[in-house]
Amino acid sequence: MSDRKITIEYNDSIVRQFLLASVIWGAVGMLVGVIVASQLNFWRLNFDLPWLTFGRLRPLHTNAVIFAFVGNMMFAGVYYSTQRLVKARLASNFLSLLHFWGWQLIIVAAAITLPLGFSRGKEYAELIWPINIAVAFIWVVFAVNFFWTLAKRHEPALYVAIWFYIATIITVAMLYIVNHLSIPSSLLHSYPVFGGVQDALVQWWYGHNAVAFFLTTPILGIMYYFVPKAAERPVYSYRLSVIHFWSLVFVYIWAGPHHLLNTALPGWLQALGMTFSLMLWAPSWGGMLNGLLTIRGAWHKLRTDPVLKFFAAAITFYGMATFEGPLLSIKSVNALGHYSDWIIGHVHAGTLGWNGFMAAGMIYWLLPRLWNKPLHSIALANLHFWVGLVGILLYVAAMWTSGITQGLMLNATTEHGTLLAYPNFLDTLNAIRPMMLFRVVGGTLYLVGWFLLVYNLYRTVRGAKAVNGTVEVFVTERAVSERLGFGSMVFNPPVMFSLLGTIFACAWMFGGDFLKLAGLFGTALCVMLAWVHFGTRTSRWAAWYDRLLVNAMPFTILTFIAVAAGGLIQIIPTTLVNRAQNVEGRRQLPYTPLELAGRDLFIREGCYNCHSQMIRTLVPDVLRYGDYSRLGESIYDHPFQWGSRRTGPDLARVGSKYPNVWHYRHLENPRDVSPGSNMPNYPWLIKQKTDVAALPSKLAVQRILGVPYPEYKDGELTALIETQEKAIAADLKASGVYVAPDREIVAVIAYLQKLGKYEALPPIKAASK
Amino acid sequence: MFHRIFLDNWISLFPLVALITAGSVYVAIFYRAVRMKSPQIDRMAGLPFESENSVSADESK
Q: Are A81 and A31 in contact (CB under 8 A)?
């Protein structure tokens, strides 16, 4: 075995590109955030323009800050630290560039399509199917580039930051692909394959874990690399980081159902989501303490060093947000906080505090190193910190106050719980207006801070020469004993005992009489044998684990199994069982073709951003909106529209509650019928014609998805649509409103009037007797 | 039985089983982490601190 010394030059130009993109898109995303926050206070800022309304801009804000700002920041951090941790240049310059430009093109495509109303109607998953394919492709490019780099590494050990990156890459791929499974009806439109509760579960499995594996795990990897570098001392406890990683990746994925507490979701799934959310306290706080204690002995530097200041505050916000998350997952707390601004405050403590400040700290640390020039102004960076911090505190405090105030008002009852204390929803909205204004102030301050960073970056980079890092390494052959092939990975005691135990446990849970008994004995035997084997052959178990830690691919496969387990257990039963024929109690009546067209317009305008369609199993919800929602009442909804925030009231049973003319007036100018409303006007719905031509292909997709639409004969579909359109137009005319039957507003009214319509069904057991 | 999985009570056993499984994983990892040897820990924790030089990007390969 001959060692030779070589010099490696890191590909830092791609790091610079991602870093600059993150700064620019961060400014854009935050600016849109301030605009949408202002629209909630001043409805005129919607300008009566379709592409500037809150419902279309809010998805632009969320997608921009998550995928454009944090995404680019994450790629910069991952590429910079990975090269240094594994002592290898990125595997392919071409793939790196393809990754960068592909991602930017996706962002541009999103920035064009979202304001135009092309949306899948699912939060943080709004992008249309061609863009979804592009995202999946570019993510694969990222994965290939990353794992290829690991394959070429000169450092056999994998530092914990690399573990977090691996978990991010495989989990995001899994979540994104499953939640975006759709059947296209045209080049720009598709319906998700999941519907109703199934779609709700998949969406929040994705939505929750987008926070976990896009906004948290990669940033934790970045924390474990950059905080020790900035503090110039190793991580406080490497042991704790190992526990942090495994417990986080195993537990996080199960917690999605906490977004659906007190809804029609089965109780066992709600209990599962709540339990695992509470369990997240331990690993999250373990990681937070590990990060903060890494700065031990360097606290004095915080007075002068903006990088450490940003990191310390970011980790503190991580601790705060991860304390608040499990707290909000307790069912009784969730009954108050859900659908309110408390959730918005919680999310922004995480994004502005944890993500935004980690990004700022990393950028200020990288700038002098990537351009070989001191930061233009330390004072300006410190000012950025204080302005941003005040901004966050104003923002989250306002949202906490707003959320708790509105939640208490909405849930308040009198007369021994038989009457609502505040029956008019708008009273609760107008009570929180001052807090909504404080949010704008807080958000603006944070944006000002970001512009200080932009200026500081510009002055630092201007006239500076970009530099790439280099390192000298010895090229050595890896010892054969360190390698772990597929066979050795699978056929070893820990994996085999786990596999057998799982099979027996499944037989115990789901099997018939004999299988159940066999499963019970098998599980018990497996646990006992594993215990005995571990006691007598401890070294074999330890050796397998140690080899796993220096073999990227087996490590990746086992990490994938760890993250996939939670999702599979939650989603597979709903996928198999949530069928129309299995529904008991109430089954939704399918929409007519015109109502379906209206529903697509409802989604196009992003109404789900403010209106839920889920009456929770809570007395105040039932008193305010009607009988609580049942599982079968959204069975044909592709996508589901249960919502996550009630800036306006729930719509699950709004059908037939008001006359057609009320809806017309309300969509034309909400304040005509609801004084004090902050909803935008929708004048274009009166001018534009319903896209009836698209309906045949949409109905064909709905049929594939199991919605019982008949095959319409020639002219039958058109006649059906026209009959319903004319009936609504005639009813409006009778109320003094003249509108052509083929206008979009007629379709939207048709849809709204259908909400809450169902057929009653007997229990399946009773029916089969 | 399976088609009523949403409605039956026996399935409430699921969260308990999941909790025990997750707890077992946590205990196992905790045990492994605590048993890691100090030299191995020190080496891993020191990985971010390898020294490096820099070269102008204009002259890069």
A: no
